[in-house]
């Protein structure tokens, strides 16, 4: 009998506890389980990072699916201003992907204003390239089409190089397994690649020094350490550049204009 009373008292206490804390528990579960939320954009940090105010708390948000120029790079200021025009002081909806936070503890999200995907528009206008380090997700194809549209419009980061060698240098091979890329000069004259760059979807960049790609010859760029030759250059400082889950390669001339692009 005493045991039954104890069980009854325990049930009553549990019921009272949940009744008192229901709203806070409910709020916690909604925040934990919900794949989206709304907030006000209080500050734009750069072209792909902003700050939101949610319930009096400030939170740094890194936009998913895109990568804009860093400070000091071409179009950095323009990308930041564009994000400000689209989002600053506006109510936005955040939609989350596979990973909720990055290594800097920033929230990772797609940002919408009235169901308008801001991340995708930044790509379409050529202020960012696509960037999916965790693998292709539900928005990948939409973003890829936005990038292709940008290339067709020939604007900003998609603006094509007018260098005479832009039509000469072609991508002969991108070997992800061996972290190697091979370019060929198909023209009958030499091409000066000084200050040309190779870049992935993220922040990794290789800058050609005083290098001449001779007519009808190849050059391979290998990630790792080694001695450079007229046929082989080493991209030092990284164990890998090209991710197995999918990536892109961008080759740009000394004016940062697009020579070629390929994704996989």
CATH fold description of the largest domain: OB fold (Dihydrolipoamide Acetyltransferase, E2P)
Number of strands: 18
**Proportion of residues in helical segments:** 10-25%
Order of helices and strands: HEEEEHEEEHEHEEEEEEEEEE
Question: What is the CA–CA distance across the termini?
Answer: 71 Å
Please summarize the sheet with the most strands.
5 strands, mixed, barrel
Main sheet: strand order: 1-2-3-6-5
- Number of domains as seen in the coordinates: 2
Structural class: alpha+beta
Low-confidence stretches: 16-20, 22-33
Basic shape: elongated
Keywords:
264 residues, Immunoglobulin-like, 2 domains, alpha+beta
Secondary-structure blueprint of this entry?
Blueprint: H1 2-33, E1 36-46, E2 49-54, E3 57-63, E4 65-67, H2 76-87, E5 91-95, E6 107-113, E7 116-117, H3 118-124, E8 129-131, H4 140-153, E9 169-175, E10 180-185, E11 191-192, E12 197-199, E13 205-207, E14 212-213, E15 218-223, E16 232-235, E17 248-252, E18 258-263
Parallel strand pairs: 3-6, 15-16
Antiparallel strand pairs: 1-2, 1-5, 2-3, 4-8, 5-6, 6-7, 9-10, 10-15, 11-14, 12-13, 12-17, 17-18
Helix pairs in contact: 3-4
What's the short version?
With 264 residues, the protein is α+β, with helices and mostly antiparallel strands. It has 4 helices and 18 strands.
Mind explaining what this structure looks like?
With 264 residues, the protein is α+β, with helices and mostly antiparallel strands. It has two domains: 36-157, OB fold (Dihydrolipoamide Acetyltransferase, E2P); 160-263, Lamin Tail domain (Immunoglobulin-like), CATH 2.60.40. Helix 3 runs parallel beside helix 4 (140-153). The strands form five sheets. Strands 1-2-3-6-5 form a five-stranded mixed beta barrel. The chain has helices at 2-33, 76-87, 118-124, 140-153, and strands at residues 36-46, 49-54, 57-63, 65-67, 91-95, 107-113, 116-117, 129-131, 169-175, 180-185, 191-192, 197-199, 205-207, 212-213, 218-223, 232-235, 248-252, 258-263.
């Amino acid at each position: 009998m005493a045991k039954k009373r104890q069980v009854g008292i325990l049930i009553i206490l549990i019921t009272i506890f949940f009744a008192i804390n229901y709203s806070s528990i409910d709020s916690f579960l909604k925040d934990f389980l919900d794949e989206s939320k709304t907030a006000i954009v209080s500050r734009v940090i750069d072209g792909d990072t902003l700050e939101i105010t949610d319930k009096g708390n400030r939170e740094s948000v890194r936009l998913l699916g895109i990568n804009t120029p860093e400070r000091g790079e071409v179009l950095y200021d323009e990308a930041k201003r564009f994000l400000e025009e689209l989002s600053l002081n506006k109510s936005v909806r955040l939609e989350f992907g596979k990973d909720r936070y990055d290594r800097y503890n920033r929230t990772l999200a797609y940002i919408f204003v009235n169901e308008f995907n801001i991340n995708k528009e930044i790509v379409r206008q050529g202020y960012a390239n696509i960037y999916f380090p965790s693998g292709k997700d539900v928005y990948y194809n939409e973003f890829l089409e936005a990038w292709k549209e940008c290339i067709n419009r020939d604007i900003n980061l998609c603006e094509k190089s007018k260098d005479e060698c832009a039509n000469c240098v072609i991508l002969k091979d991108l070997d992800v397994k061996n972290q190697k890329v091979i370019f060929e000069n198909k023209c009958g004259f030499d091409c000066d690649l000084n200050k040309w760059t190779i870049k992935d979807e993220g922040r990794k960049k290789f800058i050609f020094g005083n290098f001449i790609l001779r007519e009808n010859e190849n050059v391979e760029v290998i990630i790792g350490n080694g001695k450079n030759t007229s046929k082989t250059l080493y991209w030092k400082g990284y164990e890998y550049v090209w991710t197995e889950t999918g990536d892109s390669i961008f080759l740009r001339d000394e004016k940062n204009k697009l020579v070629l692009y390929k994704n996989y």
